[in-house]
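If your schedule permits, I should be very grateful for your opinion on a structural question. Thank you for your consideration; the sequence and its tokens are set out here:

===
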Amino acid sequence: MSETGAPEEPSTGQSRRRAAIRIGVSGWTYAPWRGHFYPKGLTQARELSYAARQFPTLEINGTFYGLQRPEVFERWAQSTPDAFVFAVKGSRFITHTKRLRDVRLPLANFLASGLLNLGVKMGPLLWQLPPTLRFDPALIGEFLALLPKDTEAAARLAGQHDARVDGRAAVDIDFSRPLRHAVEIRHESFRTSAFVDLLREHGVALVCADTVKWPRLMDLTADFAYCRLHGSTELYRSRYPDDELALWAQRIGAWAEGKEMPDGDFAGAPTLDRRRREVFVFFDNTDKRHAPEDARRLMEMLDLRWEAGEEPAG
């Protein structure tokens, strides 16, 4: 851990000319992976530990479907290497049920459910919007303003939780550190400079989502980049061929090196900010077991080596 409390960059052997690039997969509990990505005989309890020694980051999907408990987050943190970082998927109760309206209390409950127990291993929070949610500047602006920008602010908001998490809330932090957020859109109405401007105003990343169904925008709106690869020809299922991975490697390299993009789809004005950006990339083409293999191949193309150490016994 650094003196500021921020996670150390993964030991990947990547060039000093670029910021850290973290490539992983979305989720890790998939029965079809057993005996394929996961060695035969590996217990389900050890799957996270194994996956975290293959990749420097993973998306937590369970947080999207329901509130977890503080001890679960503690166990996840303890099962992963020191320089490992989680991305945490925001609650669908906030994004899909409440549709971002009147969500201060649900957000407090979500934050109090144990996220802060990840400590330095808590990376970006991912807010995936439903496909039927249209761009509403006032609604989106209010939601972005509500999102805490550091763990101290998150702890204060978490302390406002209601009885739903009484007796199982975790609202303490060791010290304050920045808290990042990323928004994934799934409706064409977000393809507007007004949305990009709002994200930049609040320092929230626009997720670059590769999918056959929803908009794929590559506007840089924060001090980091967040990319989800859902499958370019078949949602959640299709494999990425080498030529497509090579193109993504170019894009990711440009983000990490602060260079102009070689191509892309944009909704807002070009950014003149050429800072190097930390990049998070998650493969979500999980249904046919392609995600781990594609993630490994992309890491090889970018010359990334994740030196996580041996998996603990037991």
User: Anything to note?
Assistant: The mean pLDDT is 92. The chain has one domain: 21-301.
